[in-house]
UniProtKB/TrEMBL annotation:
This is HTH bat-type domain-containing protein. The lineage of its organism: Archaea, Nitrososphaerota, Candidatus Caldarchaeales, Candidatus Caldarchaeaceae, Candidatus Caldarchaeum. It comes from Caldiarchaeum subterraneum. Residues 156-206 form the HTH bat-type domain. It comes from the Archaea. InterPro entries: HTH_bacterioopsin. It holds the Pfam family HTH_10.
Length: 219
C-alpha cells in the first residue's frame, strides 16, 4: 500500500478565503480531513481542521459562509487555537473530478497557496492509473511525496464505507444529523459493530497523524 501526496492545480475557494486571512507570522495551518461529494454530484461536505491565533470559531464560520457556493459552515474550538469545522457547499471544483471518491487522507493548504492532496493506493498500478486519469482530465499536478504505509495504518474497505456513511449522514455534525442507531440501520449492522469499527478507524487515523508529526519534525 502506498501513501502519495500530490500538489494539484485546483482551487478551493473557501479554503483560500481562510488562508487569505491568516498571515504566515502566526503560523496558521489549514487541513481538510475529509471531502465527501454530495450524492447529486453538486458540491461537497468537508471536515476541516484549522490552527490559528487570529480568529475564533464564529469568525472562521462567518468568513467561510461569505464565499460563493458555501451553504453551511460551523467551527468549534477543540483545543487552544485548534478548530474543527464542517463546511457544506452547493458547488465545488473538486466535486467534478474523481478526487473525493478515492481513499483520501487529507488535503493541506500549503504556504505556496497550493492544495496538497494525500491519498492511499492499494498498489503502484492503482497509483499510475490515477495519474493517467489526471492527465486525461488535464489536471496539472506535481508528485510531492510517496511512502509505503505500515499495515497498522491501513483502513479496510469496510471501515472506509462506514466512515464515509458517517460523514455523509451528518454523524459528526453539531447537532448530529443521525444517531449511532440510525447509522447502524443505514448500514444494516448492529450499533455495537458500528461503534467498534469507528473506534478502530479513529485509532488508525490518530496513529497516522502522530506519525506524520514525528516525520515532519525530522525534516
Amino acid at each position: 500500500m502506498l501513501k502519495a501526496t500530490l500538489k494539484l492545480e485546483l482551487h478551493c475557494p473557501w479554503a483560500e478565503q481562510l488562508a487569505g486571512g491568516c498571515d504566515k507570522i502566526s503560523r496558521s495551518t489549514i487541513t481538510i480531513l475529509q471531502c465527501i461529494p454530495h450524492s447529486d454530484g453538486r458540491g461537497t461536505s468537508a471536515v476541516v481542521k484549522v490552527f490559528t491565533r487570529m480568529f475564533d470559531g464564529k469568525t472562521l464560520a462567518r468568513r467561510v459562509k461569505g464565499v460563493k457556493g458555501v451553504k453551511e459552515a460551523s467551527f468549534v474550538e477543540v483545543k487552544p487555537y485548534i478548530y474543527l469545522g464542517i463546511v457544506k457547499t452547493l458547488s465545488c471544483p473538486c466535486s467534478k473530478t474523481p478526487l473525493p471518491h478515492l481513499n483520501l487522507l487529507n488535503i493541506r493548504y500549503g504556504e505556496d497557496g497550493k492544495l496538497y492532496w494525500s491519498f492511499l493506493f492499494a498498489s503502484k498500478g492503482e497509483f499510475h492509473d490515477f495519474l493517467r486519469e489526471l492527465d486525461e482530465r488535464k489536471i496539472n499536478y506535481t508528485i510531492h511525496e510517496i511512502t509505503r504505509v505500515s499495515e497498522a495504518w491501513a483502513i479496510s474497505e469496510k471501515q472506509t464505507i462506514v466512515l464515509k456513511k458517517a460523514l455523509e449522514s451528518g454523524f459528526y455534525d453539531t447537532p448530529r444529523g443521525t444517531t449511532l442507531r440510525g447509522l447502524s440501520q443505514e448500514l444494516r449492522i448492529s450499533p455495537r459493530a458500528v461503534a467498534d469499527i469507528l473506534r478502530r478507524v479513529h485509532k488508525k487515523l490518530a496513529l497516522q497523524a502522530v506519525e506524520a508529526e514525528n516525520l515532519n519534525s525530522l525534516k
